[in-house]
Amino acid sequence: MKKVLGFLGNEIFLGTMIALLSVFTAVASYQGAMADSEQNKYEILGMQALNDGNAEYLTSNQYISQDYSYYDNWFLNVDERPEIAEYYEFNFSPELQEAIARDNGIWDDEYYDAMYAVPADLFDQSDINFEIGSQWDERGDQLQLVMLVMALGLAFAAWASLMSAGSNMRYLFSTLAIIALIAGIISYLVLVPTVVA
Question: Residue 109: which of 164, 189, 117 has the closest Cα?
Answer without folding.
Answer: 117
